[in-house]
Each structure stands twice: as C-alpha cells, then as structure tokens.
Amino acid sequence: MHYHQYIPVDIVNGPGTRCTLFVSGCEHQCRGCYNKATWPLKSGHLFTEVIKDQIIRDLLDTRIPRRGLSLSGGDPLHPANLDSVKKLLQEVVLSAPDKDIWLWTGYTLEQLSSEQQEVVALIDVLIDGKFIQAEADPNLVWRGSANQCVHFLSERAQHRQENRG
Ligand code: SF4
C-alpha cells in the first residue's frame, strides 16, 4: 500500500485529537473530489512497517493523548489496500484497544465485499458513499455530501453517540 499523508496530531478528521492516515488509491472518480492526487494506487509514499509502528507509538503517546485513528484517502477500502489496512487495524485493536477507529470510503456499506467487511468489522465508525457535488453541504458534520452516511457500528461508538443526545 501507499499513502499520501500521515498527520500524527489532527483535530479535523473525526472527533477529538487523532492520528490520521490518508492512503493512496481510489477508483470512484467523484466529480469535485478534494483529493484527486490520491487516486493512483502507487502515488505518495510506500506504507512501511516503520510508519505502521509510528502510528501505534503515536496512539499510545500519553504526552498528547489521542482519542483514535482516522483512515481516509484515497480509499482505505480499495481492494488493493485491504491487506495492509487490515494488518494495521488488527495491530491497533491489539495494542491500543481503547482508541476508536473512523474510516471514510467511497463504497456504500451495502456494496462491501466480504473482504471489505472483514476490515469494517475492526472499526468503530464508517462514513460511506461517493462525494456527490449536487448534494454537497458545508454544514454537514464528518461528511461532504448529503448522500453519505455516518454509521456508528461498534457498541462503544453507538453508546458515545447516544450520550451526545
Ligand atoms: S471517494 Fe473520496 S477520494 Fe475517492 S474520488 Fe470520491 S471524494 Fe475523491
């Protein structure tokens, strides 16, 4: 897998202070995409063990407490990214189980293959669907267009969401 950017301290992509990884590779070609440079699978930098270990270290860093990890792109659920993303998430779940995982994808929840579902089973919140310019709305939270949906999948994500009222 390749990635475009890793932000070790991020307060924009998801709730709280987070680590955010923008992976390379997207086949959706949404009109008005904010991140076209990430479309080619081999663009950006090679995702190595070194950067994976860095993410785990940052999530565990108590000097700047992170609430969790955000994965965006590009598309973390692009079929070519699934093995690497799954390995990363398995390690996060094992090493930092209290950190929540948010993932943005252009596929809808209903479209996911069994391999993609295996990755989604490791996350807390999925924001799904292509960006549709005609439905774009800057007032939406965590999503760019109204067709996209924020799915609170894990029990703790649902619990947190319910307690927000
Ligand atoms: S899914 Fe996201 S990265 Fe991919 S084309 Fe659409 S807006 Fe761009």
TrEMBL record:
It catalyses: glycyl-[protein] + reduced [flavodoxin] + S-adenosyl-L-methionine = glycin-2-yl radical-[protein] + semiquinone [flavodoxin] + 5'-deoxyadenosine + L-methionine + H(+). It comes from the Bacteria. Keywords: 4Fe-4S, Iron, Iron-sulfur, Metal-binding, Oxidoreductase, S-adenosyl-L-methionine. The keyword Glycoprotein does not apply. Its cofactor is [4Fe-4S] cluster. The keyword Ribosomal protein does not apply. Its EC number is 1.97.1.-. InterPro entries: Aldolase_TIM, NrdG, Organic_radical-activating, Radical_activat_CS, rSAM, rSAM_sf. NCBIfam families: NrdG, PRK11121.1. Activation of anaerobic ribonucleoside-triphosphate reductase under anaerobic conditions by generation of an organic free radical, using S-adenosylmethionine and reduced flavodoxin as cosubstrates to produce 5'-deoxy-adenosine. Belongs to the organic radical-activating enzymes family. This is Anaerobic ribonucleoside-triphosphate reductase-activating protein. The lineage of its organism: Bacteria, Pseudomonadati, Pseudomonadota, Gammaproteobacteria, Vibrionales.
